[in-house]
Amino acid sequence: MIYGYARVSSTDQNLDRQIKSLLDANCEKIFEEKISGANRDRPELNNMLNQLKEGDTIIVHSLNRISRSTIDLLQLVDELKQKKVSLKSISDTWLDTTSNNPFSEFLLTVMSGLVQYERQMIKQSQLEGIAAAKIKGKYRGRPKKFNSKHPGLTHAIELYNKGDKTVKEISEITKVSKSTLYRFIHQEK
User: Fold this and answer.
1) Domains of the chain: which residue ranges?
2) CA–CA gap between residue 108 and residue 99 (Å, rounded)
3) From CA 137, how far away is CA 122, in angstroms rounded?
């Protein structure tokens, strides 16, 4: 089955151009949406993805209709590969997974590498910032959720010291995890 997917960001925009190009590409069923593409959780996109079977193809007029970010596109392509479903873009002719297109695979690999590089650069910058803040004495790490003055933890320790309840029961009553309770009990000893 050949599915088409058309999307515009707002209700006052028109889908006609996309639908015409999808019909010209022999799409048998077209899913249409007038919704922002910022979020991948879109009703018609999900509806289409749920109907896919091995051997199906999705055609879009351009990639920015189905995906708004490189990471999102790579995840989608990976999901479709696992389902053995192809993706083809009419405007972005380099993306055509309907056959063993080495150029398409190459570009997806390069894009994936760039995304991973970007993530590593962000992480490296963050670690450098933390190290500089530690030197200045300004970095304290994430604030602790529980401290000795937290009412739930105080109540949990009181119940533990009474000795008439199990740690599991105390955890359920106070909503303090067993590991947190044990950590504070051992600190007091």
Assistant:
1) 2-108, 151-188
2) 14
3) 22
**Residue segments in the chain with a per-residue pLDDT below the cut of 70:** 112, 115, 143-145, 147-148, 188-189
Closest by CA position to 170, among listed 189, 157, 179, 151: 157
Alpha carbons within 13 A on the beta-carbon side of 54: 2
Q: What pLDDT, on the 0 to 100 scale, is given for residue 55? A: 94
CB 53 within 8 Å of CB 2: no
The architecture in CATH of the region 2-108 reads 3-Layer(aba) Sandwich (3.40)
For residue 58, the model assigns a pLDDT of 96
Q: How much is the pLDDT for 148?
A: 67
The three-state (H, E, C) secondary structure of 145-163, written as one string:
CCCCCCHHHHHHHHHHHHC
With beta carbons less than 8 A apart as the criterion, state whether 104 and 96 touch: yes
Predicted pLDDT of residue 112: 64
Q: How far apart are CA 57 and CA 53, in angstroms?
A: 9
How many Å is the Cα radius of gyration of the chain?
Answer: 26
The residues carrying an active-site annotation are 9
